[in-house]
Amino acid sequence: TMGSGTARIAAAVTVVWLISGCSGGDGVEHQPPDLSASPDAVVVVGTGVCSMRNEGFYEEDGVYIVLERFICEDTMSDPRVTGTEELVVKTKYVDETTGGIWTADEATLTTDDGIWRGTAWGIVDLAGVLPWAKGSFPFNYGEAHWIGEGPYEGLEYHWYITGSNSEAAITGWIRRTDD
Hints:
The chain is built from one helix and eight strands; from the N terminus they run αββββββββ. The chain is mainly beta. It is globular and about 45 Å long.
C-alpha cells in the first residue's frame, strides 16, 4: 500500500509526470524535456502549503466555473524557488462528481531575491480514483511554467504538482531559457 508520505509523494509525482509529460489525447507524442542537453539544469523538489479564498462562481454554457485565489508557501530544495506563490485559478467542472480542468493565467512566485511569473494548468479529481487521492478532497494534478525576473532573468522554472487544496508535492527543474 501507499502508506508512507514519501511513497505517496513519489507515486503521485510519477503519475503527474505520466499524465502531463508523456501522454496526450491530442495525437502528439509528448516527451519530457531532455535535461541532459542543459548542463546547468537543476532538479528541484519540495512542498507547498496553501490557503484558498473563493473569488466567485458562475455558469457558462452549462459548465460550472469556480474562481479561487491560492496563496502557497513553497519550501523547495533550491532557495531560488522557495517563497510565496499566488495563483488565481479558474476551474471548469466537467461534472459534479468527476472533476474538472483548472488554469491560472497569471501566477507569481516571490522569493527572497526575485520574482517568477508564469501560468499553470491541471485537473481536479473529485472522485478520488487513485489510491493516494482517497481521503483528500479535492485532489489536484498540475503543471506550471515560470519565467524569472530580476536576478532570475534568463531562467525558466517548470513544475509538476500533486496534492490537495491545502498541501501539495512539487517537483520540477530550473534551467537557462536559451537551452
